[in-house]
Amino acid sequence: LMRGMFDAPIASSAAWSPADLTSLVAWYDPSDLTTLFQDSAGTTPVTAAGQPVGLILDKSGNGHHASQSTSTARPLFQIDGSGKHYLAFDGVDDYLSTSAIDLTGTDKVTVFSGSWVLSSTVAIFYETSTNAIMGGAFFCASDYNALGVGDWMVSGTVAAAFSTVADQPQRAVTTAQMSSAFTNSVGAVSVNVNGLAQTLENNYNPTATSTGNFGNHALFIGARSGPTYPFTGNLYSLIIGGALYDAATVLAAETWVADKTGVTL
């Protein structure tokens, strides 16, 4: 008992956060109300569920803030029955976008996301540039080319490694690790859904060879510019890194996103 009074306290390790990722590019966290504003100028904070989100700040420190200047095209901040915070996209015209994110220095990108898809129509959840296949972009969608409700699509790079993962849960933590340097698409894309590695199918161009990088494009969240292919559903978390990560780091990130999304891994 006396020893406990005089010994120095044992240090405890800090909880993991996306800020611990090396090569962190962008990080959007709807659970942090200090990053949410009703207008694109960032003058009116979001304070309650049901309010529009015209701006969400990038927590990576890189300044890739995502905004929407059209008031009617802003997603809504919402809180679900389990207390999880999210952005609700209406599948009509809601989306957010950033200024150009320069990924010309990397041929490797990882995206961690937490979402809930609420429609079976083709929808772009996130992508860079305005052409997911030809623009060095990456995206997920709920359905494409009659592949089935709940399919996720991931495009690794220019006209290649466009792969699908079939019949996934609506509420999902999805990790897409992508490389634009590959031969015959080997190693171009790997996907986890709710912590489980997926078998990719329907590769868009299985004989393609690429040695490029991911370019310098805007990021679109919830639709393509226009908007086209609008997403109907909820965004709980979106994290982009300019690297491929080891298994321990992936697990830490997925666990963090799962907590935000309401998923048990």
Overall structural class, as computed from helix and strand content, comes to mainly beta
Strand composition percent: 25-35%
Low-pLDDT ranges? 1-12, 133-137, 158-162
User: Biggest sheet, open or closed, and with what strands and sense?
Assistant: 8 strands, antiparallel
Radius of gyration: 19 Å
The outline comes out as globular
Helix content: under 10%
The first-to-last residue Cα distance is 40 Å
Specify the oligomeric state: single chain
Order of helices and strands: HEEEEEEEEEEEEEEEEEEH
If helices are DSSP runs of H or I spanning 4 or more residues, what is the number of helices? 2
The overall average pLDDT, rounded, is: 81
Number of strands: 18
Helix and strand arrangement:
Layout: H1 2-6, E1 24-28, E2 36-37, E3 55-56, E4 66-67, E5 76-79, E6 85-90, E7 96-102, E8 108-117, E9 126-128, E10 152-157, E11 160-165, E12 171-179, E13 181-183, E14 189-193, E15 196-197, E16 209-211, E17 216-221, E18 232-241, H2 247-261
Antiparallel strand pairs: 1-18, 2-3, 3-4, 5-6, 6-18, 7-17, 8-12, 8-18, 9-17, 10-11, 12-14, 13-16, 14-15
Give a description of the structure.
The protein is 8% helix and 34% strand. A hairpin with a 5-residue loop joins strand 5 (76-79) and strand 6. The chain has helices spanning 2-6, 247-261, and strands at 24-28, 36-37, 55-56, 66-67, 76-79, 85-90, 96-102, 108-117, 126-128, 152-157, 160-165, 171-179, 181-183, 189-193, 196-197, 209-211, 216-221, 232-241. With 265 residues, it is mainly β. The strands form 5 sheets. Strands 1, 5, 6, 8, 12, 14, 15 and 18 form an 8-stranded antiparallel beta sheet that branches. A 3-stranded antiparallel beta sheet has the order 2-3-4, with no helix packed on it.
